[in-house]
Amino acid sequence: MPHPRAQGRRALTIGVFLGALTAAPVAAQERTTVGGYGEIHYTNPTEPDTPAQVNLARFVVYLAHSFNDRLSFRSELEVEDAKVEGGVHGGEVGIEQAYLDYHLKDWLTLRTGLALVPLGIINETHEPPTFNGVERPSFDNDVIPTTWREIGIGALGTVPGVAGLSYSLYLVNGVKAEGFSGLEGIRGGRQEGQHASFANPSLTGRLEWARPGLNVGASFWYGGTANADSALGTGTFAAPVTLLSADARYELGGASFRAVVATIGVSDAAAINARYGGDVGSRIAGGYIEAAYNLLNPLAPHSSQQLNAFVRIERYDTQASVPPGTVQDPTLARRITTVGLTYKPTYNTVFKGDCQLLHNRSGIGEVNVLSLGIGYQF
């Protein structure tokens, strides 16, 4: 028969153990969130001998976990063009985001991992229901190369004492000059978290001021691109790229407007072209403006559904300036007009249709494209 004092100790131990089991879930406050987005496109260009196509353009799974009220993880896994098959061109599987956030104060959250860089409107917020048009603006492919993500560490939050003002600032791996081209600017230089060289760390950041119906933002990127190639220099900021961008969004009643401009300076474009046999411009510049109106607003002003008629005008040139020895290509001075309809039965589902008129300074290779699409996010 156990001694009464031993029985008391055993009872106390069991009680503490059971109490810990009961309290553990409350103390941990862990939770997991699953989401995603996707889109399917139909495109029909007017070029001869170019048939219409349908494509599952994107299928993205979002997975997040909060370890407690301060520490959380966010990730996105994306499949483009429906599938990836060995030996067959097309399709891509990629990690779009994978980072940890440590929330200290409203004015300071530390972020580290693979994150979207804070440039322009579309790069950080690019789910199909968030923009008009079947495709993202071409400007956000050829000038600001959406979706641009790199590995690094940063800080973000609200600015104390200034209502509606927020900031983000990151130190990330840089881009590689060997991937630059006249056609798509600096897009091919992104490393996207795959064995990314840190020879040229880069700085990027954004300020955004938000008030009811109005958002105004400014973004930047600065960093070297040489990747320790002695032909371009060996310093931290050798063969630098400087990107500056400004954007605005405004809503009033059923009307909405957005505009973005950006300029990119490639300081050593001549040396880059000589080293890699390319034709990258020394300056890449352009922007777009867009206006939309919800046709359901006068008929059902309190409805959550939307039917937006919109027009978007893009003007940009990936060879706005070229270095000595590089011949300027007038087909790269592009003018794109998109008109269409966007129907949103709910805030996170969308049906789209538009017509794009693609022109350039030379008048060569101009085409019109009819597109239809569906999209969702959850």
Task: Write up what this structure looks like.
It is a single chain. The protein contains three helices and 16 strands. By secondary structure, the chain is mainly beta. 31% of the residues are buried.
Please count the helical segments. 3
Radius of gyration from the alpha-carbon trace, in angstroms:
25 Å
Secondary structure class reads mainly beta
- The secondary-structure element order is HEEEEEHEEEEEEHEEEEE
Based on DSSP secondary structure assignment, what is the total number of beta strands?
16
Mean pLDDT, to the nearest integer, reads 92
The helical percent reads under 10%
Which regions have little confidence, pLDDT < 50, spanning 5+ residues?
A: 1-27
Strand content: over 45%
Spatial shape: globular
Terminal Cα span: 62 Å
Strand order of the largest sheet: 1-2-3-4-5-6-7-8-9-10-11-12-13-14-15-16
Largest sheet: 16 strands, antiparallel, barrel
What is the strand and helix layout of this fold?
Layout: H1 4-28, E1 31-45, E2 53-66, E3 71-80, E4 92-105, E5 108-116, H2 139-142, E6 149-158, E7 165-172, E8 202-211, E9 214-223, E10 241-252, E11 255-266, H3 269-276, E12 283-294, E13 306-321, E14 333-346, E15 349-360, E16 367-377
Antiparallel strand pairs: 1-2, 1-16, 2-3, 3-4, 4-5, 5-6, 6-7, 7-8, 8-9, 9-10, 10-11, 11-12, 12-13, 13-14, 14-15, 15-16
Task: Fill in the keyword field for this structure.
mainly beta, 3 helices, 16-stranded antiparallel β-barrel, 378 residues, globular, 50% strand, disordered N terminus
